[in-house]
Amino acid sequence: EVQLVQSGAEVKKPGESLKISCKGSGYSFSSYWIGWVRQTPGKGLEWMGIIYPGDSDTRYSPSFQGQVTISADKSISTAYLQWSSLKASDTAIYYCARRTGGSNPFDIWGQGTMVTVSS
Amino acid sequence: QSALTQPASVSGSPGQSITISCTGTSSDVGGYNFVSWYQQHPGKAPKLMIYDVSNRPSGVSNRFSGSKSGNTASLTISGLQAEDEADYYCSSYASSSTLFGGGTKLTVL
């Protein structure tokens, strides 16, 4: 079965760092792009960026450039989304999702990771 | 880049048809045939329902259809069923980026 399994919910304080993960299975992880999507009650879905695990080619949405870092380790079929200094406004559900190319849809989604940032 | 514009809510009775619109610009919806639609039930991840404007992935009911005219894409659901009640999001390719709509809550009366 093709699936993406994300790491569990996190509760952090403002200023702390965080790295969440997304592990693919059932397909050739290196051959598909993995994107990250933020969901908040007020703003719906927001595309954050995307990485091609095969060569780590990474693209960011202008809204998230410099705010997060996307990476991948193809040897363990895992993509990552990380923050160096969290803000309360980073509180959201984060989804990873697979796509075959830059213009293609996200056909497989992870279950989502809830990140809560609160003092 | 601004989010695509969708109505906040639509509703319909079982058996009826509804259409959800998704308005963008010539730089996204109007410029490419890469519009997708996702269905999201509460507490669940989004699910791909339509891609490349009007194509359905394997396993998606043919009650779901998509179209586009100019800068506006549309999702039509015919023969509404209770299980169709969910949030629906459109998405468009936009020059090496991806935009989502704000989402539409579908209520089946």
**Mean pLDDT, all residues of chain B:** 95
How many E-type strands of chain B? 9
Biggest interface, residues from each chain: A-B, 24 and 24 residues
Uncertain segments of chain A of ≥5 residues (pLDDT<50)? none
Give a count of the beta strands of chain A, DSSP E runs of length 2 or more: 11
Largest sheet of chain A: 7 strands, mixed
Separate helix tally of chain A: 0
Present the secondary structure layout.
The complex is a heterodimer of chains A (119) and B (109).
Chain A: E1 3-6, E2 10-12, E3 18-25, E4 33-40, E5 44-52, E6 57-60, E7 69-73, E8 78-83, E9 92-99, E10 108-109, E11 113-117
Parallel strand pairs in A: 2-11
Antiparallel strand pairs in A: 1-3, 3-8, 4-5, 4-9, 5-6, 7-8, 9-10, 9-11
Chain B: E1 9-12, E2 18-23, E3 35-40, E4 47-50, E5 64-69, E6 72-77, E7 86-93, E8 98-100, E9 104-108
Parallel strand pairs in B: 1-9
Antiparallel strand pairs in B: 2-6, 3-4, 3-7, 5-6, 7-8, 7-9
Question: What would you say about this model in short?
Answer:
Chain A is an all-beta fold and 119 residues long. Chain A has no helices and 11 strands.
Describe the structure.
The complex is a heterodimer of chains A (119) and B (109). In chain A, 0% of the residues lie in helices and 52% in strands. Chain A is built from no helices and 11 strands. Chain A has strands spanning 3-6, 10-12, 18-25, 33-40, 44-52, 57-60, 69-73, 78-83, 92-99, 108-109, 113-117. The radius of gyration of chain A is 13 Å and the shape is globular. The mean pLDDT of chain A is 95. Chain B is mainly beta. At the A-B interface, strand 5 of A face strand 7 and strand 8 of B.
What attributes does this structure have?
heterodimer, A: 119 residues, mainly beta, four-stranded antiparallel sheet, 11 strands, 52% strand, globular, B: 109 residues, six-stranded mixed sheet, three-stranded antiparallel sheet
